[in-house]
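Good morning,

Attaching, inline, the backbone tokens for the sequence recovery test we're adding to the shared suite. The designed sequence is right after.
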């Protein structure tokens, strides 16, 4: 790469079904040049996340991200090193910052759109995990109480691989996860704080959940929807708290667009059991030392939790990394390292 160009990942063509590596292109683009008040960043890591399938499919009205069209550059959470910055930017060359212009080697943005990293987490790449989402979901949206039984659908993904560990530390008595293979199920139990793991496709999830939680569940962290949400409603105890974080059953359906996630549920059960169900409400704690980061950093340093993730080396491998994520080949977050 010359000093006048920088590589970027673009959507090359709209897929018929799930996207594959051939639907993307890694291209040379002119090196971005910052205007007054802007920061130039050389990216070191960026996150690969399944919601890209939804954006490629046309997006969902009311969500903050625009749909992607052929020729558009992909984007997402990234960690980079400041190359240049104006004197009043609050960051200096060499500082690490987090921002939303991943999927490229260099990015330019207003200084206000990048967040300096302060060492709260021992590994900068851990900022690209879902710890903030998990901690907020389990302390605000569906708060875990001592003695609770917690069910996490999609327990081996970026959210689920942390949710089992966090739920245990927040006081849960029993934690159950679901995943797509026996190998991952074994790892949920041996490595990630789960007492039991359900395997999608082996038997009906409702049947497996009834065996794993014969007295019912108190909390659901739902990353999947579909059959697993129905099973959780059946297993819910009175007053159960549900938080809907993801919709992977619809998002990654090969026969859909990834923009809808319909599921038929028995609303009588919601009433009879007084189930509280809410969509994840986003992150409010965005100050310089948010509680989730302080606690996650302390847990990582003490060894109380791990940050499960796969690091894929090189921007040329980014389209393959997305395909592998969609195919369920990794456990935890998927991060491209530049």
């Amino acid at each position: 790469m010359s000093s006048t160009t920088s590589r970027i990942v673009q959507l090359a063509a709209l897929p018929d079904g799930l996207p594959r590596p051939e639907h993307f292109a890694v291209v040379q683009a002119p090196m971005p040049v910052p205007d007054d008040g802007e920061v130039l960043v050389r990216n070191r890591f960026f996150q690969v996340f399944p919601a890209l399938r939804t954006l490629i499919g046309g997006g969902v009205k009311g969500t903050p991200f625009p749909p992607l069209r052929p020729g558009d550059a992909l984007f997402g959470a990234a960690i980079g090193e400041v190359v240049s910055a104006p004197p009043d930017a609050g960051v200096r060359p060499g500082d690490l910052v987090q921002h939303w212009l991943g999927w490229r080697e260099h990015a330019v943005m207003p200084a206000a759109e990048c967040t300096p990293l302060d060492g709260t987490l021992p590994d900068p790449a851990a900022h690209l995990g879902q710890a903030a989402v998990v901690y907020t979901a389990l302390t605000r949206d569906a708060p875990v109480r001592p003695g609770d039984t917690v069910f996490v659908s999609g327990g081996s993904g970026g959210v689920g691989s942390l949710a089992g560990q966090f739920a245990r530390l927040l006081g849960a008595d029993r934690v159950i996860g679901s995943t797509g293979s026996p190998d991952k199920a074994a790892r949920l139990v041996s490595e990630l704080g789960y007492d039991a793991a359900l395997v999608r496709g082996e038997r009906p999830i409702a049947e497996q959940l009834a065996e794993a939680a014969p007295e019912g569940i108190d909390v659901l962290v739902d990353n999947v929807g579909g059959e697993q949400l129905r099973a959780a409603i059946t297993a819910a105890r009175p007053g159960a708290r549900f938080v809907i974080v993801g919709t992977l059953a619809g998002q990654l359906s090969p026969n859909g667009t990834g923009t809808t996630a319909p599921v038929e549920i028995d609303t009588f059960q919601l009433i009879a059991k007084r189930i509280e169900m809410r969509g994840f409400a986003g992150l409010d704690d965005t100050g310089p030392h948010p509680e989730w980061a302080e606690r996650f950093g302390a847990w990582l340093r003490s060894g109380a939790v791990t940050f499960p993730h796969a690091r894929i080396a090189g921007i040329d491998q980014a389209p393959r990394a997305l395909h592998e994520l969609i195919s369920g080949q990794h456990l935890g977050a998927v991060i491209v390292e530049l």
